[in-house]
UniProtKB/TrEMBL annotation:
PANTHER family reported for this sequence: TRANS-ACONITATE 2-METHYLTRANSFERASE, TRANS-ACONITATE 2-METHYLTRANSFERASE-RELATED
Domain Methyltransferase type positions: 61-158
Gene Ontology biological process terms, A to Z: methylation
Superkingdom assignment: Bacteria
Gene Ontology MF, one: methyltransferase activity
Descriptive protein name: Methyltransferase domain-containing protein
Pfam family for this entry, one: Methyltransf_12
Provenance organism: Actinopolyspora xinjiangensis
Lineage: Bacteria, Bacillati, Actinomycetota, Actinomycetes, Actinopolysporales
Keywords: Methyltransferase, Transferase
Amino acid sequence: MREDDRTAELVEDNRRHWDERVPIHTASPFYDLNGFRAGEEVLDRFQLDELGDVTGLDLVHLQCHIGLDTLGWARHGARVAGLDFSAPAVRTATELAAEVGLSHRARFVAADVRDAVDELGADGFDVVYTGGGALMWLPDIVEWARTVAALLRPGGRLYLVEFHPLTEVLDDEHGATVDRDYFTRRPRTYDAPGSYADWEAETTHNTATEWHHTVGDVVSAIAGAGLRIEFLHEHDTIPFRRYAALATDGAYFHYPEGRPRLPLMYSLTAAKPRR
């Protein structure tokens, strides 16, 4: 079997994995759709501060899942498009947009990221946004960066928020001991019943594959696509208990007081030069 064929099989396994988890996530307190319907903020404060005012901007959210963050940006004034390879996720996002009165400024498309330009058009967006837990599902980070650059208008910006790849190689209990090789790029396939939103949920499609991209890989791919890095920030908080030993302030998780900290998330902005 050719490597391209094998990669396509792994991506299809991931699609089935995510399709099955859409109703689990829709019903879970983790995503708290009722809170969103009631008007609660879904975007981290640092994201709002870093990206700034999006009023009147065209924003596309790649790998948008059920559209919560996408619609969060719409509530802050952006015209948004969300793209995800899971058709059930896109249906859920479309229904949620209608429920909260945002259909006039939000649209959702079921497609692979590699087909985003064909589906949405080149040079069409002021902002390309990608939120936490997205890049690890992409086999080719260079292809992703080229897609981002093609979607952006001249002067437009990529805003990326992601779990720090260091978190993928540390032990699950304490987040302090290196368990895996940081520089291994081979795909990692594993069995994952349930969901981070509900570990007790009964699931059938449990095989998942992730691809590890170092910070250097991501930054180099973005720069190689012709975008200019404006900042790279590392953060010591994360929105879920990535390691058992993490403490919480009620909204975010972090290393306990008195312990040395490691980065848990990072964010960056990169701009497309004006012609």
